[in-house]
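Methods: example folding runs. The two proteins below were folded one after another, and each record is reproduced exactly as written to the output file, sequence line first and structure-token line second.
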Amino acid sequence: MAINKAQIRRLHARIAPIWFLPLILTSLSGSLYQVASLMKANSDFFWLLDIHKGNFGPLKLEVIYPFINSFALLMLAITGITMWLQTPRRKRS
């Protein structure tokens, strides 16, 4: 069963907003904590490490959060690369 361009674009459009959230949360919280650490204020920003690890108050995703991020990145990369490979190439003159 071949998947056409429209199906790939629909799949990517549906999963991108969902999978983007954990990736951006991990990136931002890690970067902001690193900035706080460089400014020697990291003890005031330990809550950023909780977000970075996947602890959201009573919701503790610490065990599966790395797998969620890995799967998200993999899915977005696969659908994005597939769309990119399906675009027609222009001839160079």
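Second run, written to the same file directly after the first:
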Amino acid sequence: MNINFGGFVPISTVDWRGRSVCTVFLRGCPVHCHYCHNPELQGGADLRTAEEILDLIQSSRMLISGVIFSGGEPTMQKDALIALAEGCRAMGLKVGVQTNGVFPETLEELVSRSLIDLVHLDLKTRWEHYPKLLKVKPEVTAKVQRSLAFCREAYQKGTLSEFQVVVTLFPGREDDVAYISREVPDVDFVLNQGVSGELTPLSFNELKGLADKIQRPVRIRTREDGEVTYKNGQIIIADSIVLTDILQARRKY
């Protein structure tokens, strides 16, 4: 089986909270976000066998407890991702996926086969803005909604151990927070500082203000302060690792 490979980070302490993991990137993505951290992985080709990629994962085995698959969009390569997840399970590793939710059938099969432990679902904006903002057809929005509904149900049933919804925020899109929060009242909710070109990103204090408005625990991620858990005006847990470092490491593959 040929897999369109995007890169490998042998160890990461921020891609899965509480775990040391390696991160595997797969190429290809049907959604071209303007703020994508890895735009070079939206296309192109670097074909590898599953055995080659599993050998990379095995090389980190003594230092990690899990693997994160990212991209690009890893669920776009359904058969490849399932084969890699099976290989990770054979090594005794946890499996997580960072996804935009455009391929719900991949997530459904991973869960049905007990091959996944964490889904990190990136919701881009409120549903009615998806077609215009991301320049996608309306049926793509429906697929993301299907992924969200499925993952929430699997998480509530216990067939998916961890599930988090991430919203990457830019100035002018602050109103999306309350809308998306109402869509996901019962899962981990992450406010991620969007960084794009010369646009001044929202500050940590501005993101805290948005969290105060929705009155629920959130995780706030910024390049300056790393990740913190925030609730009722208080920082509960702080992560000292700055995301800038890991974003730079991701490009060194």
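Comment on the second run: Residues 240-253 have pLDDT under 50 and may be disordered.
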